[in-house]
Design goal:
- This protein is an alpha+beta fold.
- It is about 55% helix and about 15% strand.
- Strand 3 and strand 4 form a beta hairpin.
- The termini are far apart.
Length: about 180
């Protein structure tokens, strides 16, 4: 997992719980002296351990924490790389451009980013069908990122997770219904 994702979690924990809480999480889940650098890669197990401890501390489920983190992460990534979202005129354009535009740009910025595969199909104005595949199975974080994007564009969105890798499917299928341009 790239350090920029860890930096997003760090920012969220410090903002909501303070620096001491982040230090405690690091002490329990990371090697001594760990400092996350955006462009470097770190073991996936570290972010999972950090997220599990956040879930426990906040009496939330892991899916709830990942979704909340994903929503926060959209803003964090947008502040770190503001030109990415500016390249899209709408929420639908951004969602449709995740794999073919955003992930291409991420691959230019970060060595071996290990990104999920995301295929999005515009079914009709106001409805996108998304397929998500990742060995990490962080689909709830992806959902949170979608909610963060909707917030960025000031629109309402609802998601229906029709199939999920956590239930044994080979991919997640997510229906993304959003405020249509003409509605």
């Amino acid at each position: 997992m790239k350090g920029i994702i860890f930096r997003g979690l760090e920012a969220l924990v410090i903002e909501k719980c303070g620096m001491a809480a982040w230090d405690d999480l690091l002490e329990k889940n990371a090697p001594d002296g760990r400092v996350y650098i955006s462009a470097q890669s770190y073991p996936d197990e570290e972010i999972i351990g950090l997220a599990q401890d956040v879930a426990t501390a906040l009496s939330m489920t892991m899916p709830e924490v990942l979704k909340a983190f994903g929503e926060y992460l959209f803003g964090h990534l947008n502040r770190s790389h503001p030109t990415v979202a500016k390249g899209f005129n709408s929420f639908a354009e951004l969602i449709m451009g995740i794999d073919k535009v955003i992930h291409v740009e991420v691959a230019k910025l970060y060595h071996e980013p290990n990104l999920p595969e995301i295929e999005s199909k515009l079914i009709e104005d106001g409805f996108i069908l998304m397929h998500y595949r990742s060995k990490r199975q962080l689909c709830m974080c992806a959902e949170g990122l979608i909610y963060g994007a909707a917030s960025h564009y000031g629109i309402d969105v609802s998601l229906n997770h029709v199939e999920c890798m956590h239930d044994g499917f080979d991919k997640c299928v997510i229906e993304v219904k959003y405020e249509a341009l003409n509605g």
